[in-house]
Structures are given as C-alpha cells and as structure tokens.
Amino acid sequence: SADQPFPRGEICVRSPVGITGYYKNAAENEAKFTADGWYRTGDIGEKRAPGYVRVIDRVSDLFKLSGGEFVAPAKLEQLFQAEVLLVSQCWVTGVPHQASPIAVVVPALVPTLSWARALGPPHSEMSLPELCEDLQGKLAAHIHSGIASVAIQRNLPTHERPSVALLTADPFTEENETLTTTRKLRRQILAKKYAAQLQELVVSTDSPASSSIWSAELESILDGPMKKIMRAASVVLPLPIPGMDFIPGDGTVSSTLLSDWMADSITAVRLAAAINAEFGRGGGDPLRVRPSAL
C-alpha cells in the first residue's frame, strides 16, 4: 500500500494447517480467498514495523470519500473518544459527494455541563439535549475544535479529519439498537437514523470555511498576535496559508524561512515590513516568521 506513514490494507493469511477453500462453493471461495490462495480475514491492518501489524478496522466498515480516499473509521472513533474530553461516544461516517468525514458525537455529560456553566447564561442553564440542539452551535464548535486539535497533533491525513461535528444527546446503546451485544457500532442503523440530519448539516455547512479542518482550529488562535501575523501575510503572500508559528527575534526575516511559500527575498522584506506595521514596531525590531509543519 502507498499509505503513509504506515502502509494499510486487508490482512490475508496462509498456513499449512489452514483451509484451502470451501467444498463445492465457488462463490464463497472467490469472496474469501485471493487468486493465489491467501485467506481474506476481513481485518484492516497497519504495518507499523517489520513483523508488526496493528489491526485498525474491518473491511466492511470502510467508506469512500468524494476524492477517492478510503477511511477506516474505528481507529478515528477510538482516538477522539480517548483524547477529546467532551466526547463520550463517536461515530465517524461519510456523506456522498463530501471530501471529508463527519463525526456524530454523544457529548460526555459531566464535563459538558461543567463547560456550559463556565460560559454563564443562557448556556449554564441548559440541559445536555438543549446544548446539543442550541442554534448558536457553541458546543458543536467547541467539540469540533477539540477533534481538529487532536487530528493535527496526531498528524492525521487530511481526508481522516472530520470537517464538522453533529451532536446528539441520545447515547448509542443496545436498547436503541445502535450497539451490538459486543458494544460495537451498528453502522447501518446509525446511518438510517441520522441520514436526514447529516444531509441537512452538509447543506448548511457547504462553504470553504466550514468544510475546512482549520475553521474551528483557527477560531481559537486568531485573536491576538496570530491574527496580526495572518493579516500581514494575507497582504503579501498567496492564500490559503497552510499555517504558521512565530517567535520574537532581533534579526531580519530570512527568505530561506519562507521557502515553503515559494517567496523570494523581496517578498520576505515586504512581509517583514507588513508584520512590523501590524505590531507597531520600527524597522530595527522585526519578527522572524517561519512556516509550521503540521
């Protein structure tokens, strides 16, 4: 597989003591065995190192995005449930003609209500269902920001980063038939249950800003110095800018630090001047700017 950094694909096995086929069942043989006799386990594996394969999902759970990429949702669901404080349960799915997945999230009750209390009225007086249905979408934006941060920290490929979060206060349980007896998601039932809401969400967020993984992440950092940096860069550099960090410095802006933006020395000087103007600094006290590898 060409997947990076860890090649992925279906795990196939063959053994001297394993079966070589099903008796007089050509259809099953074709479905379960490769042409050269390897048994298809139905598990998706990630080759982490020589001799080390990690099972991350089932072939039957994969879905395809509009760009042709396949997404293995189980590992994403486990990641977001483990590392995003306000996420209790998560189902990652795809919607036709969309280039990125969507996360359907059941918020964690206690931390979510604590977060709402910190906001003050009216959110501090809302129940969990009311917070999930809030037209202002503050909780959804906050949870999506957490998901976006984890996706960036874990260096997930762009096509594995959910573009938006749909919230529900209705937990996934065996009683409502959204979980199996072994606590696995019943994806087909979830797809039917949330089909209308997912389609409505896609239509309402069908814009470059809202479909970008950066939308929630940038909202949390654009206030203050970063906003000035971005505003100066937008005047000088071609957009979109994939992201940058900055550090105070006492030297000049180096054109080599801007090579990722394909900028020359003249552009570097113009950028330095624009940044200094934003910060109200003179020419003798510049900032050194560099692209941030995400």
Model description:
It is built from ten helices and ten strands. It has helices at residues 26-32, 73-83, 109-119, 128-133, 138-153, 187-193, 195-204, 214-219, 225-236, 265-278, and strands at 8-13, 39-49, 52-58, 63-64, 70-71, 87-93, 102-107, 164-167, 244-248, 287-291. It has 294 residues and is an alpha+beta fold. Helix 9 (225-236) runs antiparallel to helix 10 (265-278).
Mean pLDDT: 77
**DSSP, total strands:** 10
Query: What structural class do helix, strand and pairing data support?
Result: alpha+beta
How would you spell out the order of helices and strands?
EHEEEEHEEHHHEHHHHEHE
Strand content: 15-25%
- Our measurement of the CA-to-CA distance between the termini, rounded to an integer number of angstroms, reads 23 Å
User: Roughly what percent helix?
Assistant: 25-40%
Global outline = globular
Cα-atom radius of gyration: 24 Å
- Give me the number of helical elements: 10
- Point out poorly predicted stretches: 207-222, 239-262, 283-294
Q: How are the strands of the biggest sheet laid out side by side?
A: 1-2-3
Let me know the largest β-sheet.
3 strands, antiparallel
